[in-house]
Amino acid sequence: MSDPKASSVLLAEDDASLRTVLTLELKRLGLDVTAVPGGREALAALESRSFDIVITDLKMPHVDGFQVLDEARKRSPETQVLVVTGHGSVDSAVRAMKSGAFDYIQKPVDPDALALVVDKALERQRLLREVEHLRAQVRGRFDPGDMVLVSTAMRRILELVKKVAATDASVLVQGESGTGKELVARAVHAASARRNHPFVAVNCGALPEGLLESELFGHARGSFTGATANKRGLFEEARDGTLFLDEIGEMTPALQVKLLRALQSGEVRRVGENRTVKVNARIVAATNKDLKKGMADGSFREDLFYRLNVFPITIPPLRERPEDILPLAERFLRVGKGKHGGTALRFSQDAADALTRYAWPGNVRELEHAVERAVILAGTEVSEEDLPPEVRPREDAGSKRSLGELEKDHVLKTLTACGGNQQEAAKRLGIARNTLWRKLKEYGIPAKK
Ligand SMILES: Nc1ncnc2c1ncn2[C@@H]1O[C@H](COP(=O)(O)OP(=O)(O)OP(=O)(O)O)[C@@H](O)[C@H]1O
Ligand SMILES: [Mg+2]
Known about the structure:
This protein is of the alpha/beta class. It contains 18 helices and 16 strands. Helix 6 crosses helix 7 (181-191) and helix 16 crosses helix 17. The N and C termini lie far apart (62 Å). Bound molecules: adenosine-5'-triphosphate and magnesium ion (MG).
């Protein structure tokens, strides 16, 4: 049995006695060696799995070392290739290094020189992996201090994030579009012990089923048209980190089955391959759909729902937490100035009122865009006129607000005052709940029964 943690090396050498000697040397160095007698066999081996190091003789019949080198480089940039050259054929060694070989070994092979160059190759590979890892870390960097958490509802969510971050439980983040689901997913990752590992996000609604499957699980070369190389899936990319499955409600039932299987077994199988790979990513899923409805109509699997919903976090729409509106707007004002320049320092009273009164059907994202746009238009103060028309209280020809506008204002203010509770708001307004729902629908606010 080979040590599963040992670095793997593929050795292609047509000279049987040299192959035997090199194999013994490499094993002595603690490597897991696969030795083959020629280029053709080397290509077949590369096809079946990946290696940390490839050592290939350059001169071999049929398929030579240059082809092996090309193939190894094409398959995985992490694999380090060492070429073995005959005495005096420095030209071909140079050519090999120009084609991406890490170094060359001259015949007759000196064991100490071999040990040294293998060591260097492994060290380089370790560094490459570390750089990749650090890059991923920078990409996924997140400071919970960047979040605006003023309302009680959002402060409660921060508490939930901290609690769940201490565990490995799956998290399901629910909320209307633009409420901050991805931000919360990143916060879970950033607050967890996995923070120094990758955060990998995939939008399950953006890709057709087959493509999404190969994105998630990876694929073997040739498993479908266009699969020109072996590819690791995102489950593998997110190794020891967090895999964010956005818009999980869009996933097809067939793929839901495969996802569930992966979650249950902790293993994935690349498309077109038989062997499985162990995975260890924390899953955070998000949706703006009502998955309970999906389960009722059969479009979302119940077993998968319960698997993902171990720890639910539901972000309320912005109109139900109006205390967050101005602090968010202030934040976006500062960020927007950094991004686009501009002179705006604050919001006028009218602008602040308009922002607070508006129902924000597109939630925080809509607010962010509205403020960014205003920053570009505004002078030192963001006025009502700098806000998008739908946010501004409209005025009719006689410069008087229409009855409908006044009514809308009143209804929304009441709703806000009731913390978004529509039943309560209907009671205070003295109208039937159905009437309120109809009105809210006109204003673009979904009824909550
Ligand atoms: N509490 C918050 N504090 C600061 N910024 C926020 C907050 N919530 C949301 N945002 C910002 O609002 C924008 C939308 O958030 P995010 O992308 O996380 O929402 P989402 O629910 O995933 O949206 P969608 O459903 O459209 O994918 C982002 O730019 C995010 O940084
Ligand atoms: Mg999102």
